[in-house]
Each structure stands twice: as C-alpha cells, then as structure tokens.
Design a protein that fits this description.
Elements (H helix, E strand, L loop, with lengths): L3 H31 L21 H5 L13 H25 L1
Helix pairs in contact: 1-3
C-alpha cells in the first residue's frame, strides 16, 4: 500500500482533474470537451499551461481570464473541488480500511 502522504495528494490532483474535465463536458458537451485545447469562453484565447491547473489557477487568477478579465464562474471551481474531495475521501477510506 502506498504512503498516505503520497496517495491523498495524488487523489486530490486526480480528482480535481477529473472534476475539471466533467465541468467542461457539462458546459460544452463531449464533442466540445474533446476537441482542441481549452480556451476562454469570452475571448477564445487558448489557456496557458499554468491556467490549466484545477482550483490553483482559479484562485491565482482571482476567478478571471488572464487576458480579457472575464469572470470564469464558480461552477467549474465547484466541479473541481467536488472531484478533488471525492477522490481524496475515497483514498482516505481505502487507507483506513487497509489499516
Ligand atoms: Zn478571456
């Protein structure tokens, strides 16, 4: 069994990424989510690598696009947060059950 110090942070990162993808699918549909790079819905600029880090980039940019300043909306942040917490709690449950 991997160390809890490794498993829980990996679970948070994986859950946030899956939650972020789920949020994009919910807003753009499967085709929109799987086509091309992520972009700002307002100015259509492709997002830079550091703008793709779930939760962290939202907080760092103050919930706005780094170029046009459009609000990103809290729904995507909610998807990312719920995903991160869900997988982290699942990891904790596995660790507790395994002793
Ligand atoms: Zn923008």
């Amino acid at each position: 069994m991997p160390s809890p110090l490794l498993l829980v942070p990996l679970g948070v990162a994986l859950g946030a990424a899956v939650g972020s993808f789920g949020g994009v699918v919910a807003s753009r549909g499967w085709r929109g989510a799987l086509r091309g790079r992520s972009y700002c819905d307002s100015c259509r600029r492709p997002l830079r690598w550091f703008e793709l880090i779930p939760v962290v980039s939202f907080i760092a940019l103050g919930g706005r696009c780094g170029t046009c300043g459009a609000r990103l909306g809290y729904r995507l942040l909610a998807y990312e947060t719920v995903g991160a917490l869900s997988v982290a709690l699942a990891c904790v449950a596995v660790l507790v059950r395994s002793g």
